[in-house]
Automatic annotation (TrEMBL), chains A, B:
Keyword Oxidoreductase annotated: no
Record-level Gene Ontology MF annotations: precorrin-8X methylmutase activity
Lineage, broadest ranks: Bacteria, Bacillati, Bacillota, Clostridia, Eubacteriales
Pathway: Cofactor biosynthesis; adenosylcobalamin biosynthesis
Protein name: Precorrin-8X methylmutase
Keywords, sorted A to Z: Cobalamin biosynthesis, Isomerase
Organism encoding this protein: Candidatus Avidehalobacter gallistercoris
Residue intervals of the Cobalamin biosynthesis precorrin-8X methylmutase CobH/CbiC domain: 12-204
Amino acid sequence: MTEITIIEPARIEARSFEIITEILGNKTFPAEQQGIIKRVIHTSADFDYADNLVFGHNAVKSGVAALKAGCTVVTDTRMAFAGINQKNLSKLGAAKACFIDDPQVMEQAKAGGVTRAAMAMELAARDAKNSIFAIGNAPTALLMLRDLILAGKLSPALVVGVPVGFVNVVEAKELFMELNVPYIVAKGRKGGSNVAAAIINALMLEALK
Amino acid sequence: MTEITIIEPARIEARSFEIITEILGNKTFPAEQQGIIKRVIHTSADFDYADNLVFGHNAVKSGVAALKAGCTVVTDTRMAFAGINQKNLSKLGAAKACFIDDPQVMEQAKAGGVTRAAMAMELAARDAKNSIFAIGNAPTALLMLRDLILAGKLSPALVVGVPVGFVNVVEAKELFMELNVPYIVAKGRKGGSNVAAAIINALMLEALK
């Protein structure tokens, strides 16, 4: 009944990436970052991400290696968790986890006067050898990871630090980028659970190549 | 251990909305649209949404009434589903549903050569009196809703039409806005599961006032 010419589903993604590449024009990126930057633009239709994603300390190489080794990806929200492609995780023998609604986390966050997201990171870090952390929402989660890293309690394979927002967000990202760990951070206010999931999904596609 | 002054969690959201209001400056919106537009900006840090959200046919009034009556909110993705606040849904006696990974949907989509998202809408529409549909990803889902409405098979309380992307997306939204049903659409390429969830969450806050 629909009158417009619909491009068939199987072609949509490839065509979308062609259009993104056309719009980016002469802009180039390091080869290993390209797939990630374009997938974030694909998920947001926001070309600001061509300029604001910062890759630190062999982020892509370290993240891809961890995924190939079957690591766990810890997210701060159920949305980011839901957005990470389960099929590709399974192919890699990797897993995802989110402790935001864990009863222990809820209880201890209340008792300690910290955010649930921060407490969820504390819990995840207790058993997090070679893990990837994907933070799309809570700057307090990113700051907790920083505290754990500085205290020598955590050595992540990669931290995707893309919380979004107007309070504490820019500051948390700037502080995190001073650390000597692999990270992918969206400078400024922008980011989100969708962006965090897109970055993990792009890394998985690299790992499956 | 963190050196920056962290605004306490309970104040973050209120302060964020104050900052958004400051940045918007003299820009004003109809009273009932304000909370929705600001919450979408809060979730994306993207002020383009101050200009691209279109409200058709008493969208807010109709959506809020349906939520107060305990309607079901049908989403196209698990991400949008995860992003809709369950506590507030429960307070309203409302529910959320997503059929994208329903075995029947997967089978029939394959057999019919259509997207799973479109088939999921077809299934949802069979029992959708007074429902709200929230589409953050798939333009094919929006076009399927349009076909069902034109065929007299569906009369939704509200359609949140905010798929994101580069192929079929702008066209699907433009076609949808010709319909005589309550809708909230993000004109252009932008949108996303996070935006769809934010709009539903904002409507619930209106309904709970």
